[in-house]
Amino acid sequence: MSGAGAASLAGASGWRRMARSGRVIAGASILLALIICALGAHWIAPFDPNEQDILNALKSPVWGLDSAEGHWLGTDNLGRDTLSRLIYGSRVALFVAFCAAIGTMIVGTILALVAGYFGGVVDWIISRLVDLWMSFPPVVLSLILIVGFGVGIGNVILAIVLVDWTRFCRVVRSEVLVIRRQTYIDAARLAGFSHWRTMLREVLPAALPLIITLMSLEMGIAVIVEAILSFVGMSVESDIPAWGVMISDARADMYQSSWGLILPISAIVVTVLAFNLLGDGLRRSFDARLQQH
Amino acid sequence: MSGEILGIVLRRILIAIPLMLLVSLLVFVVLRLIPADPISMSVPPNATAEEIEALRREMGLHLPIVRQYFIWLGHVLGGDLGRSIAFGQPVTTLIAQSLPATIELAVFGALFATIIGIGGGLLMFALRGRASGQVADLGSTVMMSIPEFLWALFLILLFGVSLNLLPFAGRLPPDVTVPRATGFLLLDCLVSGNIKAFFQAIEFMLLPSLALALGTAPLIMRVLRSSLMDVIGEDYITMARLRGVPERRVIARHGLRNALLPTLSLMGVQFGFLFGGTLLVEVIYSYPGLGNMMVEAVRNTDLPIIQGAALVFALAVLVINLVVDVLYIVVNPVLRRAR
Predict the structure, then answer these.
(1) Quick check: is A133 in a domain?
(2) A278 or B34: whose pLDDT is higher?
């Protein structure tokens, strides 16, 4: 019990700091807006994202010279409304971000807990597995996994989980190694807790702030990986609007209309920035050592 | 001393061998999951059942998968990565043609990343505690949110399309050819004495390597800044200051030298990522390297190329990490003595 107590004590001041952190507020606000866009896309978007209007193809945004009535952010080469596609694109990005982050968290954390807690041979095997995985550039590994699995949003999520669990595993493992040496862990064992119960009730809560921080950063990475895969045409089916697909479509026409490229790029950067600000703010709030600087 | 370092290098290579074998197993197994049948891609549509069966036997596809792996591995170790389905050429030839271009790009990218990373880290450190430092800090967070492939597109828009300053497709203007000698275009330009083409080739490489560097540098910047922060509290820094050593020199002689160690070990990991990042950057800049070839192969489901390229990428990352680890030991006397 003392473990959870100590963790919540350290956590309580962390949560307070967090609520005051500009980064956390900024990141969370952007994310909230994105989530509203994604959930309410059907009502917010002015057009159907796949509705073609060839007569109004490649129109510039309203501030440009060649804008079209109603298309606030212009249109692409098939006359599809850029704003509507951006709004619908947030669905793919956020869905992949949340699912992939939860998946990597579960896989990475479980392996890290087992490795850090039991040590010895188990730790050695898991650590070598991490080394093996990390010897692949992430983009290359996710690409061959997607070639193996085939395209589709579920497979994209699976590929990201299979690529990125190592990031979680490596960081959380070293945290677990530190927590493992605390006296309250021994106390829990002496009190008759089983290994699993000690891990889940004592070790895990103490590692939670780190895990939450990593999840936030992982969501940003997942957004990027999804954009990369949809950019090379290996992510979602062609009728689903995704930011990476928009970029890849707009490349051919970048001389006529650079906004088609700039807008989805900005959407990706803002989303990733929101996750990074949130993660960075959380880390600063929880990390006592940083507070002293 | 050098014998000791040699021992460490040999030990690292011994660890790398089973790692490479596992990587090859991973590549083989994953690409066997592929729904497409490799046979149907390499025969004409009017092939008879006998012809297909003959080819299946020739390619060894009737054997159990474990035996297939060992046969494939035997070929790989013998330097035979199979033949490309789309081009009909040996994969090793294709890789030998495209890998030098990727290495050149990665080296330039790493060079820029080092300059921007260390320069930026020092700048952030110099601005610490000021309002402009907060801005620089936020700036680095924004930069961390932009991966190299978005930098690549952004730089094209800015310097290529809008300002029309730099070229962004391929390696040389279409009317310039350089005889192939080493495979490394920059060297070939020098070998053939074509200095003009040399500078043109560098011009073509500026944007893609800058994109790679901008995707890699922010983390180097931040780690250097925070390790400088750690070092600056040490006694020897205070002592140097008390001795009246100018601040600039304190940072350069004492601070930077010690703060560079953690930065160097991070750079090893980062340059591994950077090598992977060439993949997308090459596609965006139509740069004829390994990554471009691999993405093309992914689109054509050209399995032998995908396998070969994936192995080369993994091997490259292992080599980069090995080199950085050795460098780390060479420059860090404490570690060297401890072993």
Answers:
(1) yes
(2) A278
The boundaries of the domain holding residue A183 are 3-47+85-292
Residues B303-317: tens digit of each pLDDT:
889 989 999 998 888
Which chain B residue's Cα is nearest to A280?
B141
Count of CB contacts below 8 A, A vs B? 114
Q: Record the tokens describing residue B212, joined without a space.
A: 């790679």
Buried/exposed A163-173: b ≥16 CB within 10 Å, e otherwise: bbbbbbbbbbb
Cβ proximity of A262 and B138 under 8 Å? no
For residue range A221-249, list pLDDT tens digits in order.
Answer: 999 999 999 998 888 887 889 999 999 98
Distance CA A29, CA A27 (A): 6
Among A147, A149, A268, the residue with its CB nearest the CB of B306 is A147
Instruction: Return the percent helix, strand and coil in chain B, to nearest 5.
Output: 75, 0, 20
Among A132, A221, A212, A202, CA closest to A172 = A212
Q: How many CB atoms are closer than 10 A to CB B244?
A: 6
The answer to the question of residue A22 being in a domain is yes
Residue B220 near residue B144 (C-beta atoms within 8 A) = no
Can you give the pLDDT at residue B300?
84
The CATH number given to whatever domain includes residue A251 is 1.10.3720.10
Burial A121-146 (b: 16+ CB within 10 A, else e): eebeebbebbbbbbbbbbbbbbbbbb
**Which of A203, A212, A287 lies closest to A3 in space, CA to CA?**
A203
pLDDT band at B335 (very low <50, low <70, confident <90, very high): low
What is the tens place of the pLDDT at every residue in B192-228?
888 888 999 999 999 999 999 999 999 899 888 888 8
CA A86, distance to chain mean position in Å, is 18
Contact residues for A68 (Cβ-Cβ < 8 A; gap 6+): A56, A59, A74, A75
Q: pLDDT tens digits, residue range A184-219?
A: 888 888 888 888 888 888 888 888 888 988 999 999
Backbone angles phi, psi at A269, to 5 degrees: -60, -45
Report residue B164: phi and psi, to 5°.
55, 45
B279–A139 C-beta distance less than 8 A: yes
Q: Does B159 touch chain A (CB under 8 A)?
A: no
Nearest-CB residue to A135 (from B153, B229, B318): B318
Q: Within a domain: residue A67? A: no
Query: Residue A12 falls within a domain, yes or no?
Result: yes
Shortest CA distance from A145: residue in chain B: B30
Say how many domains are in chain A: 1
